[in-house]
Amino acid sequence: MLRIETNSDGETTTIRLIGRMQSEHLDELKRQLERPRFVLDLAELTLIDVDVVRFLNSCQREGIEFVNCSPYIREWMRREEQEA
Questions:
Q1: Domain containing 33 — which CATH number?
Q2: Where are the beta strands (DSSP E) in the chain?
Q3: Sign of torsion, CA 43 52 57 27?
Q4: Residue 81 and residue 20: Cα distance in Å, rounded?
Q5: Rounded to two decimals, what is the model's pTM?
Q6: How many CB atoms lie within 10 A of CB 48?
Q7: Phi/psi zone of residue 70: left (φ > 0), alpha (ψ -120 to 50 degrees), beta?
Q8: How do the pLDDT tens digits run along the chain, 84 residues long?
Q9: 83 partner at 20 to 30 Å CA-CA among 10, 28, 51, 60?
């Protein structure tokens, strides 16, 4: 189960991902990412699959900022990027 929360300070929108994210959630997240200025808060993202890791890597290559990303997700992203 994934919950997506948004919070804006007037300039930047924080998109917070909470719970388990799988490839089936990517379309909804892509819709959320159509905002002009945003950051992704991954503090409460507990479980992901390889398609999500690949998507997060593509976001990072495009300059999207992540905050509160867990070490295991960062490491998986790094390894997946090296294998690509």
A1: 3.30.750.24
A2: 2-8, 13-21, 38-48, 65-67
A3: negative
A4: 21
A5: 0.89
A6: 23
A7: beta
A8: 999 999 999 899 999 999 999 999 999 999 989 888 899 999 999 999 999 999 999 999 999 999 999 999 999 999 999 987
A9: 28
Sheet order of strands, 38-48 included: 2-8, 13-21, 38-48, 65-67
Q: How far is CA 13 from CA 49, 50, 77, in A?
A: 25, 26, 23
With residues binned 3-state (H G I as helix, E B as strand, rest as coil), the percentages for the chain, rounded to 5, are: 40, 35, 25
The boundaries of the domain holding residue 36 are 2-83
Structural domain tally of the chain?
1
